[in-house]
Design a protein that fits this description.
The complex is a heterodimer of chains A (463) and B (464).
Chain A: H1 2-13, E1 19-35, E2 38-56, E3 59-65, H2 70-86, E4 104-108, H3 120-135, E5 141-159, E6 164-182, E7 185-196, H4 205-208, H5 210-221, E8 230-236, H6 238-250, H7 255-259, E9 280-282, E10 305-309, E11 312-313, H8 320-326, E12 334-335, E13 344-345, E14 349-352, H9 359-364, E15 368-373, E16 378-381, E17 386-389, E18 393-398, E19 401-406, E20 410-414, H10 415-418, E21 422-425, E22 430-431, E23 435-439, E24 442-450, E25 453-461
Chain B: H1 5-18, E1 23-39, E2 42-60, E3 63-69, H2 74-89, H3 115-118, H4 122-134, E4 142-160, E5 165-183, E6 186-196, H5 204-217, E7 227-233, H6 235-249, H7 252-256, E8 277-280, E9 301-306, E10 309-310, H8 317-322, E11 331-334, E12 346-349, E13 353-356, H9 363-368, E14 372-378, E15 389-393, E16 396-401, E17 404-409, E18 413-417, H10 418-423, E19 425-428, E20 433-435, E21 444-447, E22 450-458
Parallel strand pairs in B: 7-14, 13-21
Antiparallel strand pairs in B: 1-2, 1-4, 2-3, 4-5, 5-6, 7-22, 8-9, 8-13, 9-10, 11-12, 14-16, 15-18, 16-17, 18-22, 19-22, 20-21
Helix pairs in contact in B: 1-2, 4-5
Classes of the chains: A alpha+beta (463), B alpha+beta (464).
């Protein structure tokens, strides 16, 4: 395989380009869906193919194929070069790539029990057990839905500069969604467990209790009141803190967005962007976390990045191109969802570093506000500098105590204000909010977290 | 010479039956698309993606197994079919599964394919992408202009063991422009997009100008106070909200499993008299049109809401047979980011072209009737499907004062229950356009601008 890929790179370079790289994927996966005690679908997937990228004078050409024979790969390399050459000089922003030292490595994402070695019957049993536990949790449960997915296989990144990195993938996840009903009121509860690794991810106590906790959440929410509308002091649990920092700040620190003129943080390195208790980290090297990867999709070794330190903006996330154009070293943030995609700058596991408060101290110190928990989704417009995210549930805080339970509501904030409004951070760091982040039509597995976090004011889209 | 997808599909179905599946189906694709992206006025990427593959669905005692592979090579087709049959046997029996669809005559749907769009070369697309970006440079406050255009060609076939054999060839083009403004350290942005079956429908200048004008209008957004206000939604905002509420809301699976806020509402009034919505898989030139759905069921039109009364849900063959009725042709295979049916996708029920019946006048007419209210151009949020509650950020919005959209608003949210939303539709314009967003899959909405009598608007400004 290596000889063939090196031959293709050489063939492409002989077509007179500056740089070529290639991502080859051969992965397989299993997905099992169940509804109300029966399997709904059992799905076996096999994704195999290669994507080739060619660089000339500031622009990229790209092509991909599902066939890994020599003829198809040569044709694909030729098309990638043709695409790059089709772009007239006058249409380009010209720059040179500054290539990092070549990386040669072969790694496996650690797995105690490779999912591919676990029989399908055992996975079906797990999914049906989740379903049963969810259904039996309460007579108010009217519908239970589970999905288990795993992925294994090989990803190769190689380039004309001598990089050749092979990563053997291991990933697994389980999600449960439960609907409960009482009178005319209907509610939904959702739980997820996901990580990089083998089948052991769904064998933990937490993973086997997903059904019960999703059901309890749905039933609990039946009694929740609609959230109020307006501005509130907001305390977020670690999961919500995670999606908050991912949306509120992470995306605006992606260097490709900066170079597209689309981030309000452009030119602000070294400036104060948050209160001095705030430190923000993106760390793909956290083994086991859902956003873990040892090498990125350009073959650069992954590293921990300090985006904000004590309120000061320190670093952006880069791939080879953005690092070249901004005169820094690439920091391993290039990710492509599949061989059919171009690598773009992405987050991995993003979190706020912990502070000094206990949770009880934060609540007692809050006369009036909202304590919001869990996360549904969020998004940001980094140019406008505004973002939103949604908790699953929340409590009103009155006189330093948690009072009534509230339903979901959109919370919004402004990038340049919000980190300055953080005035209390909990002691305990939890990074457990696995999910898929979408950008430029590509999904990336990510994780996020933080401690309990208090923000002086955010807007609730209540009723 | 490329082999016929129907022949390959028949081989797969035969192999699955031979592996002792009770019934089997194959969905096969060949796709090509060409994309150009422009960043800050310069071409960044030009790329082409070719993909082919199939998925096989095998049924054993009602249990459904799927398998897919990224190849149409004969050996892999047979292995994939066998694997689907193996998967099916590992599942639980499902007595509610009656049968895959039987063959039926598919309608003739015109305008699915355009030869020029299928054969466009990169030079032409480069030109269009650059023209979108260039036509955004209308003011010195425009700081960055980005654009993208994607032209795709798609072949899709469905074959099953009951004799269904159908094939469509279609084209699609998606173009977008994003303009970013900067003045006195403040930034803003806006966008415009267009999807069509035919490249000739893309007007690069128009896309560029609309994006730039909104970006300029949205600069220096203000925080506003929390209040209940009338809301005008332009066609894009209305389409996004209808897509994210009606599509899951009337999905028969969500109804049968008691997940939807529209459960038990069939035949009831759920909207105002001027609210009528239908799903039409045969809509002329519709980007959601095809002659059949992902199971080979013929495309058709289904009335969903008529004068505010909920008339029907949307079905695939499984949910339809559970109720002893016909599928409405709403089976999909969706992969986020792909505007075509995709063999990798999980089967889901979705809208084809969700058509909201237009009224009269323009969005300006709607705005001119509002003394104090909000104009929403974009919200990316979705309602809670169980409660029907919609709570979201107004991603791009403007304050309406004395019949005019006066200034942009920031950090402003909206909260409303979707049934109240439908019931409070007090005006519908006649400015319908097709809306399809790659990130939301192959579903299309054709909606005019609308006005809602009142919604809770929460702002970041303190009351005096």
């Amino acid at each position: 395989m290596k000889d063939l890929l090196e031959h293709i790179l050489e063939y492409g370079m002989n077509l007179d380009v500056e740089f070529i790289d290639m991502r080859v994927q051969d992965t397989a996966g299993t997905t099992i869906r169940a509804i109300n005690g029966r399997t709904k679908q059992l799905i076996k997937s096999h994704n195999k193919g290669a994507g080739i990228r060619a660089f000339i004078d500031g622009s990229w050409g790209f092509s991909c194929t599902n066939n890994l024979d020599k003829g198809s790969l040569r044709k694909t390399a030729k098309t990638a070069v043709k695409m790059a050459k089709a772009i007239p000089q006058k249409m380009k922003h010209q720059f040179k790539l500054k290539l990092p030292k070549p990386t040669v490595a072969s790694v496996e994402i650690p797995a105690k029990k490779r999912a591919a070695d676990v029989p399908i019957d055992e996975k079906v049993k797990y999914v049906l057990a989740l379903d049963k536990s969810a259904r039996e949790s309460s007579p108010k449960v009217v519908n239970t839905n589970e999905r288990y997915s795993d992925g294994t296989g090989a990803l190769v990144v190689c380039n004309s500069n001598g990089t050749y990195v092979e990563t053997r993938l291991n990933v697994a996840l389980a999600v449960v969604s439960v609907f409960a009903q009482e009178g005319g009121v209907r509610q939904q509860g959702f739980e997820i467990e996901a990580g990089t690794g083998g089948y052991e991810i769904v064998e933990t106590e937490r993973a086997t209790e997903l059904g019960v906790s999703a059901a309890q959440k749905a039933v609990r929410l039946l009694k929740a009141k609609p959230a109020p509308a307006g501005k509130f002091v907001t305390i977020m649990d670690p999961r919500l803190t995670g999606v908050f920092i991912h949306e509120a700040f992470g995306h605006a620190c992606e260097a490709d967005t900066i170079l597209a003129g689309g981030s309000i943080l452009e030119g602000k390195i070294g400036e104060n962007v948050g209160s001095d208790v705030v430190t923000v980290v993106d760390d793909p090297t956290l083994e086991g976390a859902f956003g873990y990867f040892p090498y990125d999709s350009e073959g650069t070794q992954a590293k921990r990045k300090l985006l904000v330190e004590n309120g000061v903006l320190k670093e952006f996330m880069h791939n080879i191109e953005t690092a070249s154009r901004m005169h820094v070293e690439p920091n391993g943030s290039a990710r492509a969802e599949t061989y059919q995609n171009i690598p773009i700058v992405r987050m991995s596991n993003t979190y706020i570093s912990p502070g000094t408060w206990t949770f009880e101290e934060i609540i007692e110190d809050t006369t009036e506000g909202i304590y919001a928990m869990g996360s549904i989704y969020g998004y940001v417009n980094s140019a406008k500098g505004q973002f939103m995210f949604k908790p699953e549930e929340a409590y009103m805080i009155q006189g330093g105590e948690l009072t009534s339970l509230l339903r979901e509501a959109a919370i919004s904030g402004l990038i340049l204000e919000v980190l300055k409004n953080i005035d209390a951070l909990g002691k305990e760091l939890v990074i457990r909010d696995p999910g898929t982040c979408g950008k430029s039509l590509q999904g990336a597995r990510v994780d996020d977290g933080g401690p309990h976090t208090r923000v002086k004011e955010m807007v609730f889209g209540g009723f | 010479m490329e082999k016929s997808l129907i022949d390959l599909g028949s081989k797969a179905v035969e192999a699955a039956i031979k592996a002792r599946a009770d019934q089997a189906e194959a969905l096969l694709n060949r796709t090509r698309h060409l994309t150009v992206t422009v960043e800050k006025g310069s071409v960044k990427n030009a790329y082409t993606v070719s993909d082919e593959g199939l998925s096989v669905r095998a049924i054993s005692r009602g249990s459904v197994g799927f398998s897919y592979a990224t190849t149409l090579e004969t050996g892999s087709i047979l292995a994939t079919a066998k694997s689907a049959a193996t998967q099916a046997k590992a599942g639980t029996p499902d007595p509610d599964f009656k049968s895959l669809p039987r063959p039926k005559r598919v309608p003739t749907v015109k305008g699915l394919y355009d030869k020029k769009t299928a054969e466009v070369d990169s030079a032409d697309l480069l030109e269009i992408a650059v023209r979108i970006a260039e036509s955004q440079k209308i003011d010195k406050r425009i700081y960055s202009v980005n654009s993208a255009i994607r032209c795709g060609w798609h072949q899709c076939a469905v074959v099953n063991s009951l004799g269904v054999e159908c094939e469509d060839i279609s084209t699609l083009v998606y173009a977008e422009g994003e303009a970013i403004t900067k003045e006195k350290g403040e930034m803003s942005s806006s966008f415009e997009l267009k999807t069509a079956r035919n490249l000739s429908e893309i007007d690069p200048q128009k896309i560029g100008r609309v994006a730039a004008n909104y970006a300029l209008k949205s600069i220096h957004g203000k925080k506003i106070e929390t209040a209940k206000l009338p809301v005008v939604l332009d066609s894009i905002a209305a389409s996004l909200i209808f897509l994210m509420s009606i599509m899951p809301g009337v999905n028969a699976e969500n109804i049968q499993y008691k997940r939807s806020f529209l459960c038990e509402k069939l035949g009831e009034k759920v909207g105002s008299d001027i609210f009528t919505a239908a799903d039409d898989g045969t809509y002329l030139g519709g980007v959601g049109s095809l002659t059949f759905d992902a199971e080979g069921t013929p495309s058709r039109k289904t009335e969903i809401v008529r004068k505010g009364v909920l008339e029907s849900f949307i079905y695939d063959s499984y949910t339809a047979r559970k109720e002893g009725r016909e599928s409405t042709g709403n089976a999909f295979r969706v992969v986020p980011g792909d505007m075509f049916q995709n063999y990798r996708g999980l089967p889901v029920i979705g809208v084809r072209n969700l058509v909201i019946e237009p009224g009269k006048g323009t969005i300006e007419d709607l705005i001119s009737d509002v003394k104090n209210g909000i104009l929403i151009r974009t919200t990316w949020d979705r309602p809670n499907i169980a409660t029907g509650e919609f709570s979201g950020l107004i991603a791009e919005g403007y304050k309406i004062e004395d019949g005019k959209a006066k200034y942009a608003i920031r950090q402003t949210n909206i909260g409303i229950n979707m049934i109240d939303f439908f019931k409070r539709i007090v005006a519908v314009a006649a400015d319908s356009r097709q809306f399809q967003l790659p990130s939301r899959g192959p579903h299309c909405v054709i909606s005019p601008s609308i006005m809602i009598e009142e919604a809770m608007i929460s702002g970041a400004r303190s009351e005096k």
